Amino acid sequence: MNSKTSKQAAIGLALIATLAALQSAVCEVTLYNPSFDDGSGNDADNWTENTLDKAARQTWGTHDEGGGPGYTNLMSLTAFNAGTYAEFYQDITNIVPGNIYSLSFWHEGEPAWSGSNVTARFIWIDGDSASIDSTAMDLDDHTLLSGWTNRVLDGVAPNHAKILRVQFDAQCPGTTAGATKLDDMSLTEWPGLYNPGFAVEGDAFSDADRWIENSIDGAARQDWGSHDGDGFMMSLPSYSIATYGEFYQVVGGVTPGHIYSLSFWQTGDANWTGSNATARLIWLNSTSNTIDSATMSLDAWTLDGAGWTNHILKGQAPLAAASIRVQFDAQSPVSSPGGAVKIDELTLTNVAPHGTLLLLR
């Protein structure tokens, strides 16, 4: 076997290992009747419509080329009734707080459409059937386009979420015409950041559950206030001379080529004397070796006067990436140590290039 063949074989084995890791971490969540093939007349099985004259299963063509008897199936939100509201939805149970849910769906507009506020939604519901949070995507820009467009809605399940309601809705105007059309859906789940607001205690008060600190002297959970309102944050304190502090969490299920976005909040400290405060996305392969990283310097926001500030760090997962390490670190000075870097309310999401969702089946 020549060197070129050996290299190709090695790459092939790495891809197989990566895909195996992804298969175990990314799973498709059961969204029943996702292409609306099953139903009776205008009523799609497993979906709830507020009224069939506004949200209905139709025979007007389809994206997925499926269809039950007599139907080329899709769901529509019609603007046939003046001044009305249309919606259809399905509730998904066994939601895991902290996990990321991604809904891929196809949307086709209609030049005659005269409605507004066409929206795709994730509505998070607790064990008492109360809505506790939501994530929405405005679809108005695509309601007048005649071609099918793939869209992806991502959301992180909040604490106490038990049910995810996948919902589409629209408003109908005084002058009625047209419809917005939806088809060929799939819902996937992958593990996001656990304990992103550091409210959950680990082995000790200063240890945030599921986060790894190099030492409690260098990185610690604190109750000094928070951005998200739960009273807790993570700190990189500069209490000891010439020390290094870091905390991190490794998330599996990475898809090579996808763009990962870490949103977090940081506030300054008048007593801070350290340096090299850094946020990092570190890509790991299937054997947990570092293969690439994306970094952001946070030094400009560590001083007094810098209130809670939202930062976003992005990076594209390289070939053979199997997991991502979300890390924050900083250096303490050689003299006069003091203060801390303060971090709270993290969210990690991923988007496929050019808006295309890649699924492992």
Structure described in brief:
This protein has 361 residues and is mainly beta. The chain is 6% helix and 44% strand.
Task: Please tag this protein with its features.
single chain, five-stranded antiparallel β-sheet, 23 strands, about 45% strand, disordered C terminus, elongated, Jelly Rolls, 1 helix, about 350 residues, 2 domains, mainly beta, six-stranded antiparallel β-sheet, disordered N terminus
What is the CA-atom radius of gyration, in angstroms? 24 Å
Can you write the helix and strand succession as a string? HEEEEEEEEEEEEEEEEEEEEEEE
* Overall number of strands: 23
**Uncertain segments of ≥5 residues (pLDDT<50)?**
3-25, 66-72, 355-361
**End-to-end distance, in Å?**
33 Å
**Averaged pLDDT, please?**
81
Q: Share of helix among residues?
A: under 10%
Commentary on this structure:
The chain is mainly β and 361 residues long. Helix content is 6%, strand content 44%. It has two domains: 31-191, Galactose-binding domain-like (Jelly Rolls, Sandwich), CATH 2.60.120; 212-353, Jelly Rolls (Sandwich), CATH 2.60.120.200. It has one helix at residues 3-25; strands at residues 27-29, 39-40, 43-44, 48-49, 55-58, 74-78, 85-92, 100-108, 116-125, 131-138, 148-156, 163-171, 179-190, 212-213, 220-222, 233-237, 244-252, 259-267, 275-284, 290-297, 309-316, 323-331, 340-351. Strands 1, 5, 6, 8, 11 and 13 form a six-stranded antiparallel sheet that branches. The protein has a five-stranded antiparallel sheet with strand order 4-7-12-9-10, with no helix packed on it. It has a five-stranded antiparallel sheet with strand order 14-17-22-19-20. A hairpin with a 5-residue loop joins strand 19 and strand 20. The longest helix is centred in the N-terminal third of the chain and has 23 residues, at 3-25. It starts with a helix and ends in a 10-residue tail after the last strand.
